Amino acid sequence: SKEKQRAQEQYDDYVAEQKERGAMKHLTDTERHDVLQIKDDWPGHSLDLFTYPEHYHEDMESVYIPHGVIMNRIERLAHYVKDDFGDDGIMVLCVLKGGYKFCSDLVEFIKVLGRNSNKYTETRVEFIRLKSYLNDQSTEDLHIIGSRDLSFLRGKSVLIVEAIVDTGKTMKALLQHVGTFEPKMVKVAGLLVKRVPNMAQHLTDYVGFEIPNRFVVGYALDYNEYFRDLNHICVISKTGKMKYKI
Ligand code: HPA
Ligand code: MG
User: Fold this and answer.
1) Counting beta carbons within 10 angstroms of the beta carbon of residue 45, is it exposed (0 to 12), middle (13 to 18) or buried (19 or more)?
2) Which atom of ligand 1 is nearest to the CA of 221?
3) What does pTM read for this prediction?
4) Catalytic site residue 166?
5) Taking burial as the number of CB atoms within 10 A of a residue's CB, which of 50, 53, 96, 229 is the most buried?
6) Which residues form ligand 1's pocket by a CB distance below 6 Å?
7) Which long-range contacts (CB under 8 A, 24 or more apart) does 128-136 make?
């Protein structure tokens, strides 16, 4: 429609202007899937600067990524997703348990974008549960321990939402599994991608933060089921590691 075209032109002008000023570098098709890199020597913020549940007082070293920053970054990812999926409905496949907060907030931001542009995207969320970690170590075997029949994915545009991607072993297995249902397209959103040897950056279409290879908790990420109730992403302390070890 004319109105849509005018809006697009306005937007293009806006982007061109911003780019000229050196801002918004990443809004073109080829550039936009930018990655926010957290450097190896980033120690995190002092705990004293933020609020957090008192029961974790001794169990954390620092606030690695504050909740507000996580939220702003997810809002940005929602734009990328919306652009890529266009008018297609999105079959969201949330990888539990760690992905539940990311998934919930991402879907919410996608819905807000729809409301604001009067172009609602249909979203449907399904859950899949995988387990491969004990303490802070990855174990060899991957279990898909909770999943209903995924045959409704056939011909649909699928967004896999996962909290952490490191070597990508889990993600590869999951992609293979999802692929058997012959979806139209599959994209992967990873809130965190870890810099490990053979890192799986290429598997992840939407990366929230690229982080060093260290164990983090909070924002639904756990250490033996603890810390999921923490809003920030934090670095666990020695005390915390000992206290909740099994
Ligand atoms: N934290 C919590 N769970 C995880 C991590 C992590 O850093 N890596 C893989 N699973
Ligand atoms: Mg876990």
Assistant:
1) middle
2) 2
3) 0.83
4) yes
5) 96
6) 98, 133, 164, 215-217, 221-222
7) 128/93, 128/94, 128/95, 128/96, 128/174, 129/95, 129/96, 129/97, 130/95, 130/96, 130/170, 130/174, 132/169, 132/170, 134/224, 134/246, 135/223, 135/224, 135/245, 135/246, 136/215, 136/223, 136/236, 136/241
Residues in a beta bridge with 223: 226
- Decide if 178 contacts 151 (C-beta within 8 A): no
Question: Residue written as tokens 């923490």?
Answer: 230
Give me 182's structure tokens.
């012959």
Q: Count Cα atoms within 13 angstroms, Cβ side, for 54.
A: 0
The ipTM is 0.97
The answer on pLDDT for 23 being more than 50 is: no
Is residue 135 pLDDT above 80, yes or no? no
Out of 166, 205, 222, 229, the active site residue is: 166
